[in-house]
Amino acid sequence: MTTRTIFRSLLLGLAFCAWLDLSHAAPAPPEDGKLRIICFGAHPDDCEIQAGGTAAMWAAQGHHVKFVSVTNGDIGHWREAGGPLAKRRLAEVLKCAAILGITSEVLDIHDGELEPTLENRRKITRLIREWKADLVISHRPNDYHPDHRYTAILVQDAAYMVTVPFFCPDVPELKKNPVFMYSPDRFQKPTPFQPAVAISIDSVIGKRLDALDVLVSQFYEGGANGSVENVPSEPAKQEERRRLVRLNFDRRYRDQASRFRAKLGEFYGLQAAEKVEHAEAFELCEYGRQPDKTELKRLFPFFAETGAP
Questions:
Q1: With contact defined as beta carbons under 8 Å apart, do 229 and 107 qualify?
Q2: Domain 35-299: which topology?
Q3: What's residue 261's pLDDT?
Q4: pLDDT value, residue 269
Q5: Where are the domains of the chain?
Q6: How far apart are CA 148 and CA 127, in angstroms?
Q7: Theoretical Cys-Cys bridge with 201: which of 53, 63, 172, 264, CB 3.0 to 4.6 Å?
């Protein structure tokens, strides 16, 4: 066994021990008639990247949003790993959640080691049931990272099981199947992303970018593929690095507004859609409940008085 292998084993062991003190489940939201949305990402930054703007808008209307990271992110950095990194990334997503006004949870599964097992299917099913979700969002199953793909598979597998009484009978089954949706990517095979709904996030873009700013380990420092070059010592260069990271995310959501302009037009009307500068979008999964446009507008209650059909 090499020194590097021993070191990695020790770090991952520390991650597990530390996680015994870190993992915590948020209580289910009250029965108040508001929407309940749960979003699954593979790592502590994925939900925040893909759905943070829409989450902030839901939260501003009093709806209940939960982000779940299915792994703890304990190898997602070029310089550090194990328990210390897992703690750091949990702290980051909790800060992010506070800015967005949502709930966040991180599961005790090692980064890079997620598998679509029966045990993990049960974990995902229980989380959806406990939240009594109206809407569930995840990666698509042809995403680039194995943890992303297996998160998608686990959520898809739960899309039927959440209604089956004797699967995980310790948590009551859902009487009404949620709507399941995917967050966007650019992969074309076997099928490209096809949005069912697109949302202007212009009203919350500042808050949305502020929330990403606190995920320092992943964006400012570059995450698993970063390097010491991402962390300059001079204050002026540090500030410039922060500005560039924020600008890149602003460009990302501007690009999505352009990319999904036609779908924005379907929900906001053509004239209003042309004015949208930043957007998020979601694709409908064929599993789970199949909503019509009226129900999509109920689940995404941001289109009032737009003049769209």
A1: no
A2: Rossmann fold (3.40.50)
A3: 98
A4: 96
A5: 35-299
A6: 18
A7: 53
User: Of how many residues is the chain composed?
Assistant: 309
Long-range contacts formed by 257-264: CB under 8 A, 24+ apart: 257/200, 260/195, 260/198, 263/195, 263/196, 263/197, 263/198, 264/198, 264/200
d(CA 123, CA 227): 35
Token pair belonging to 278: 């930043």
- pTM, rounded to two decimals: 0.90
Helix (H) or strand (E) holding 282: strand 279-288
Letter for the amino acid at 210?
D
Whole-number Å distance between alpha carbons of 226 and 10 = 23
Q: Please, is 58 exposed, middle or buried when counting C-beta atoms within 10 Å of its C-beta (0-12, 13-18, 19+)?
A: buried
Where are the strands (E) in 91-226, listed by range?
103-106, 135-138, 179-182, 197-200
Kindly list the averaged pLDDT for each block of 10 residues, start to end, along the chain of length 309: 45 41 65 95 98 98 98 97 97 98 98 98 98 98 96 97 97 97 96 98 98 97 95 95 97 98 97 97 97 97 69
CA atoms of 42 and 144, how far apart (whole Å): 11
Q: What are the Cα distances from residue 235, in Å, to 8, 231, 240, 242, 249?
A: 33, 10, 9, 11, 22
Contacts of 221 (CB under 8 A, 6+ apart): 77, 78, 79, 230, 231
